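I am writing to request your help with a piece of structural work I have in hand. I am sending you one protein, given as its amino acid sequence and as whole-number tokens for its backbone shapes. Kindly check, if you would, that the fold set down in the tokens agrees with what the sequence suggests. You will find the record immediately after this paragraph:
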Amino acid sequence: MQKKARYYNNSSFLDKKQLVNLKIKAIRAGVWFKTLRRIDRVLFDLTTRVVDNIRSKKLAKSIDLITRKLEDAIKSHFSYHLRQTGFILAQKTSSVAQKLGNQSAKGWASDSSFAVFLAIMHINDAVHHKTM
């Protein structure tokens, strides 16, 4: 079963600003160079520099494939950080809170929402410290 492309009748499926924002997210996540071949990066960059609206179905299909690769890589990057960082921090926080007498903190170690929160806080803190 093929995935349905996100373009309609020769009109733009993603505007230039969305493509540029996706590239920025991919670079920040560290997946831009790891995920895309050089030809894909060149096609993406040229498209964002030259074309305001994608009218060619072939170009739209190519850009659609590239954006799907990037979106999947960004999602898996976050999942990796969630597993590596979020749950480790949740376990440490739970342990410290229990030692301080908070017995309800035992459930924090396995709380996925809490792990997501901690992972996001850690990622944002790491980005903040890199810019200083």
Q: What stands out?
A: The CA atoms of residues 85 and 119 lie 6 Å apart. The chain has one domain: 16-131. Residues 57-99 form the longest helix (43 residues).
